[in-house]
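Give me the fold.
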Amino acid sequence: MAQVVLKDLSKKFDEVVAVRDVNLTIKDQEFIVLVGPSGCGKSTTLRMVAGLEEITAGEIYIGERLVNDLPPKDRDIAMVFQNYALYPHMTVYDNMAFGLKMRKFPKAEIEKRVREAAQMLGIQELLARKPRQLSGGQRQRVAVGRAIVRHPQVFLFDEPLSNLDAKLRVQMRVELKRLHERLETTAIYVTHDQVEAMTLGDRVVVMKDGLVHQVGDPLTVYSKPRNRFVAGFIGSPAMNFVDCTVVGSDGDLAVEAAGLHIAVPPAQRASVERYRGMTVTLGIRPEDIREAMPDDSKSYRVDALVEVVEPLGNEILLDLKVGHQAVVARVPPTSRVRLHEQIALAVNAERLHFFDTRTEQAIE
């Protein structure tokens, strides 16, 4: 296996900049996920690594080799696509063996590799079938198996689970994670689904408008987002944002908006104090809002009107109105909150986020 290094990587389509100055080192045997909304440049970046898209500027190294001018077949990579890309007239066995046959591998070696990959993926009973006789999940396993038999240095996955139903996606996520641990491969995975990114990646690369906004392990990106975009994109339901004015003195600093007055926690006062009299954006995740208890500090309580109750079985989502601001809270399934009820909420003081309203960067 090998590490992959992207240096100042850029891509333009005519006058449109799709990827801008991406610098990233993907370690040997690391599973890294590129995530972001449609049009953020994640698939274009992956296709440049694969050699399917010409590079406008920058360098790509796979192992010690500069691969900018190498064709895809010489980069020692294997790619799994969103649409499976299986040959409909071939059996599962022949689909998996096709790349090895084209490279003139001995028949015995092809047989060995295909059988091993099929056993690993649990599709050994399907080798004689054609793709039309398979379910979506089975086709995806075949596509992954076709990549595995190559024994490449790097695996590239371009939204491979997006065509599957919700239950199968969860199952395939687990299988891909297990597979990566067994094969000890370097893998680059592209998705627009932040849940996939969080559950699969050793590290997550959050992109928007062709730029990398943050790179880090999933829990760090979740708990310490670098800017408002990352904070709102990672996490479901999304983080609540409220524009507030910073008021008070050093020892009693707070943020204030219509229907909301929350103290700035001691650990964050020094950084927020310089915004006194100015507007900042307060960020609170739904899971950091709960129904208030009698002994909760008044400094971290707000009153809210319940507008929508969404019971999900393992939790309840409350769509609330705090002053003029819409807020979502995640509460336990035992909650007995009713529609149109006025309730008191408490926020987790240790999990508040503050952002510069103008630059949208986290205030640290």
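The radius of gyration is 25 Å.
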